[in-house]
Design goal:
425 residues, globular, alpha/beta, 17 strands, six-stranded mixed sheet
Length: 425
């Protein structure tokens, strides 16, 4: 690759191949190359966002509010849905190919014999571009866990943990306490740690206490509640309150995500104004989060939810937004997910299941027959089997009638395939 001009697609193919593992947690490699690149702070202020669910939406709320406040903002998120460029946003715009390629070239020249993972390359590229963009605020979304995640080479001014639940147990541990400890690793001594769970694991609170991080807890230090008779809601803490419009993002959990974002920006100082909070909450958008489409009178809803906690939120939304017809679920998940737990959470809300394979989605991908076998005995046991998401979605669409709703969910790969199909339909 060195000395040769390559497109972004060429670079992505290269960085996918260079490391033998898609996930190899640890900070030694990326810290080494970060130092070789001479990188400093990615922005005047930094907020790092971790958690099991709600990270991407919380980042979007923080970004939208901070931009409404006139700040120059960069956001690094993962994974992407349709284009790699989505992972790096500066002033609300995805980074263009040429800028990402320039970052990759700089990383390649600096890394020497250090072998980086795909995610480490992307993280360094974001930090390289952010430093050059002279940002007021850099927002970094944790990829996996926190303590050993590549984003943790940067010391945040405010750390956020949205929720802690079971996911990625092979890497993070088998219970909330173990997972919480890993996620708490993004906290810094004497800095705010915003917690979106009403009842966070004791491991999170214990770590915050041990290092002197000031925990800012939902339901304890800040509160949010609906305003009766309206679709508005209130955020409040001691000595301060603000009334807000309903988030454009639809799920019930989005109000909590918005509340956590407000708490993070209140902790950062200087705080946005009440009007700027309202403008940002109303403006935030994230593709693949209960993203709704209408095709010939049929509602199609696409969501990236991929674990039981996310499925419970989907079920809550389905209960709160009933349809007159049947709910047809197109479900495809990666091979390391608790798919039975996901189905159990949604079983009472779904009438028909359409199972799809993700065989071409990397080492964790799984074909539909193996996927269906894992669901034996569950409510989705008798679901139709289809080789891929597009085929399953086509079948659900063909069988849907007026008033039916098609819910497509299970992973970012599932949502991406659905959005590609919908874009061409």
């Amino acid at each position: 690759m060195r000395g040769m001009q390559r497109t972004l697609a060429d670079w992505l193919s290269h960085i996918e191949r260079i490391h033998p593992k898609s996930i190899d947690m640890g900070l030694e490699r990326i810290r080494d190359v970060h130092q070789r690149l001479g990188l400093k702070r990615p922005g005047k202020k930094v907020i790092t966002v971790g958690g099991t669910n709600g990270k991407g939406s919380t980042v979007a709320f923080i970004e939208a509010i901070a931009r409404a406040a006139g700040r120059r903002v960069g956001a690094y998120t993962s994974p992407h849905l349709l284009a790699y460029n989505e992972r790096i946003r500066i002033d609300g715009r995805d980074a263009d190919d040429a800028d990402i390629v320039a970052a990759f070239e700089a990383i390649e020249a600096a890394r020497g014999e250090v072998v980086l993972t795909y995610f480490e390359y992307g993280t360094l590229a974001a930090l390289w571009l952010f430093e050059r963009a002279k940002l007021d605020l850099a927002i970094l979304e944790v990829g996996l866990g926190g303590r050993l995640d590549a984003t943790n080479i940067v010391d945040p001014d405010v750390a956020v943990i949205t929720t802690v639940d079971l996911d990625h147990q092979d890497y993070l541990g088998d219970d909330r306490e173990a997972i919480g400890f890993e996620k708490a690793g993004i906290a810094r001594a004497w800095k705010p740690l915003v917690l979106g769970d009403d009842d966070p694991p004791s491991s999170v609170l214990g770590h915050a206490y041990a290092i002197g991080a000031s925990a800012v807890r939902a339901g304890c230090d800040f509160f949010f509640e609906p305003l009766p008779g309206t679709d508005h809601w209130r955020w409040r803490e001691v000595g301060y309150r603000v009334e807000l419009p309903a988030p454009a993002l639809a799920a019930p959990a989005q109000r909590r995500n918005a509340a956590v974002a407000i708490a993070a920006l209140r902790a950062l100082r200087p705080s946005p104004t009440r009007l700027q909070f309202a403008e940002g909450v109303a403006a935030a958008r994230v593709p693949g989060r209960l993203q709704r489409f209408e095709r010939d009178g049929i509602e199609i809803v696409v969501d990236v939810g991929h674990n039981p906690q996310a499925a419970r939120e989907l079920a809550a939304w389905l209960r709160a937004s009933p349809t007159t017809g049947r709910v047809r679920a197109v479900f495809a998940a990666l091979g390391d997910k608790d798919v039975v737990g996901v189905v159990e959470a949604l079983a009472e809300q779904v009438d028909d299941w359409y199972l799809a394979g993700l065989a071409d989605s990397g080492p964790r991908g799984i074909g539909v027959d193996a996927f269906a076998e894992r669901l034996r005995g569950s409510a989705a046991d008798e679901g139709q089997r289809h080789a891929d998401v597009a085929t399953a979605l086509r079948a659900a669409r063909a069988q849907a009638g007026e008033g039916d709703r098609i819910l497509v969910f299970g992973s970012f790969h599932t949502a991406a395939a659905a959005l590609e199909w919908l874009g061409g339909y």
